[in-house]
Amino acid sequence: MPVIVQDYKWExxxxxxxxxxxxxxxxxxxxxxxxxxxYLKVRFPxxxxxxxxxxxxxxxxSTATIKKGEMLFTLQxxxxxxxxxxxxxxGMSDKxxxxxxxxxxxxxxxxKAVARSKAKAEKVQEEKKYTLDTMMKLEDEERAxxxxxxxxxxxxxxxxxxxxxxxxxxxxxxxxxxxRKQAKESExxxxxxxxxxxxxxxxxxxxxxxxxxxxxxxxxxxxxRSSGAIKIHFTPRVFPTALRESRVPEEEEWLKxxxxxxxxxxxxxxxxxxxxxxxERNPDWLKEKGDKLFVAGNYQAAINxxxxxxxxxxxxxxxxxxxAACHLKMRNLHKAIEDSSKALELLTPPVADNAGARMxxxxxxGTAFCELELYVEGLQDYQAALKxxxxxxxxxxxxxxxxxxxxxxxETSKT
Length: 415
What we know:
Residues 107-141 form a coiled coil. By secondary structure, this protein is α+β, with helices and mostly antiparallel strands. It is 58% helix and 12% strand. Helix 6 (317-329) packs parallel to helix 8, helix 7 runs antiparallel to helix 8 and helix 9 (375-388) packs antiparallel against helix 10 (393-414). The longest helix has 101 residues, at 95-195. The chain is flat and about 140 Å long.
């Protein structure tokens, strides 16, 4: 059962009613207000204030505010008059009558909400229609502008074409006049030749000599050379760097080491591995299996697989580097440092082909040093990795953190 609030206050003028309802220490988020022209309810469990107003008010013009622990209502009267009471409930005890009044208030509020929603929908529809009309008007104006521009372009193109035709006609007339003039000149010269003695005139002696020299020169020239294609073969290089930037001896030494590793295992006695299958005797296959176990989070099983691969071939740097990553996950920090160092020892000489592997080994050893709080040694490894890949933003951030830790420790020790 709700607790009915009785200690409310109200005042009035001929045009407004002022009601103050104490909130009993409740916050604004706990207060629920419902109002119509004839009904007012404030609910903040377990308290309830309910008023069936003495006369109708203008609910749309009324206001409600919360100030200093009170709910203040300003209700605008529909007609200017003084009320004898705030509510019609005063002196009434008929529950059915009160229930009918409450239902009528709720129904009126629902009808008002429906009307408001309908009005809002009509307003939205009108705004959409206005927007659509405006867009259509703008599109019409834009279309008219485009048509006007097209008409202007057509007129300009037609004028240019007409001017070009006139120029062509003038040129053709000029050319025709020139040809007529040449024909007349030729006809005149023909008439003059006819008036002379019969027979063709001979060429001047100098012209005959020049023509004979040109014919002799053409006879001495060799025949045109037949076409063909020259094939050029380039020696392929293993390393991506240009030859002028490469350290050829170091690259050749690295290739030789890789070839020695791939020629076969370095294990002295393989009798202990007779029970293994052909795949299980392949260090590359074991490395892939160990990598999958590492990704799955089974670090101890991955270490066991890397151990077997190293017993078969102990000169593969990736096996030591990947086993170091497993030891890091299992907090075997000294073993991680040992395996990373062995990987770096095998990744010599430093060339472009093993740059990525060297960077990973430096980062793993540096991480292990930092976990052991050997920050200076860790910083050296991170700086070496950053020298290999200067543009790596993650490496830059980690290096800066380690440097800040060292500087912070130095300042603490000085204090």
